[in-house]
Amino acid sequence: MAAVGSGTGRALLRRLAVEQVETRMPSLAAMVLRAGRPVWFGGRGRVGGAEPGTDTQYRIGSITKTLIGVMVMRLRDEGLLDLADPLDKHLGGTPVGEVTLGQLMSHTAGLTAEPPGPWWERTPGASMDDLAAALDEGTGRFRPGRRFHYSNLGFALLGELVARHRRTGWEQAVREEILAPLGMSDTTARPREPHARGYAVHPWADVLLEEPEHDAAAMAPAGQLWSTPADLARWAAFLCQGDERVLAGATLAEMREPVTVDDGDAWSVGYGTGLQLMRHHGRRLAGHGGSMPGFLSLIWADPADGTGVVLLANATSGLRPSLATDLLDILDTLEPVIPPAWTPSPADPDLLELTGPWYWGPAAYLLRLLPGRDLSLGPVGGAGRSSRFVARPDGTWRGLSGYYAGETLRVVRHADGTPSHLDLATFVFTRTPYDPAAPVPGGVAESGWTAG
Questions:
Q1: Predicted model pTM
Q2: In a domain, 437, yes or no
Q3: Contact present, 349 and 56 (Cβ < 8 Å)
Q4: At what angle do helices 322-334 and 6-22 cross, to 10 degrees?
Q5: Are residues 140 and 259 in the same domain?
Q6: Cα pseudo-dihedral 270, 271, 272, 275, rounded to 10
């Protein structure tokens, strides 16, 4: 493991130690990543008489959902399903067959948060047949697509969808297609030694009560898995950087795109497609939290620079979510990222002549050349529609961000080959404001620019 400096390591350990004492965690483990690689690990408390290590297993709860999400996207990329498909197309026999797979993945399907019956996290699991039979018209609580409403039930249904498409259990599919390629051999459906025991901590005394642990059966895709700090560091690195053996980079980026917001106007926490999202001090983090009786977990990853954090604890409640961002803040403050040196890169002459100012009507924009043949287009003053564009083989560009995401940018040239104007989603950008020689929509007044 690459290491942070001793001062940074001490600050990180102190923050972890304070959390373990003040929230009375029986044990607490944390891993911090930089550039997609672990740079610090800390463990406090006791598991089997020793401090937790990088190979100590904890139950990770809803972090399981992120692996189910990746499996669904693998099926999508293989052409076996579409996120716009209704659930009924792949998993019939439920009273909520009209909700789409994309809505289930983003918790916007409007389903009840929990399955019917006793609290599933503390009772033996039922089969999918029994679970489906227990659903009724009350399973849908909101109009699909209306709002964010977290649903464990929704991911149980997605896990069954994965199992049916792969004709095997969801856990075996996850192990073969995700865990094995990423080297996550210590992530399992049931615990193996050394593993933490799950406890409830008495609210008014320093005593523990062991929590039950079982196979959640049909609900398992919502929170069954166990993992270690080392394995979850590999998962955080994957969420940052991707791995083509598991999922195409563009698909992983799609999963990180915001679909819905969880905290209204604040927009600090939201949900993508199978991933929780958070904005913090300029970072855009992707990951997930997890909780099961006796266990708490959290993983965040920033694809911008490969920074990540993993937390694991064996208590039912009490861990403060701010611990994760506090550890990131300590790292950023004491060891800020040093950007790589700028170096020039070659540019094709036909692209160089496109750079500089263009005008959408009277509004001035700058076209910049990015590495390769990619482009960026944004207003000179900074306020307005900005987008990045990726080059296509046919000589056009496709928008990657902002208002023009997915739209086509074309360079229209005069007969002599010199640029005439840019055509972008019906908007015409010219070299001078309202160039009368260009096909400006609606035409240009013959009187030209006047004093009024």
A1: 0.91
A2: no
A3: no
A4: 160
A5: yes
A6: 120
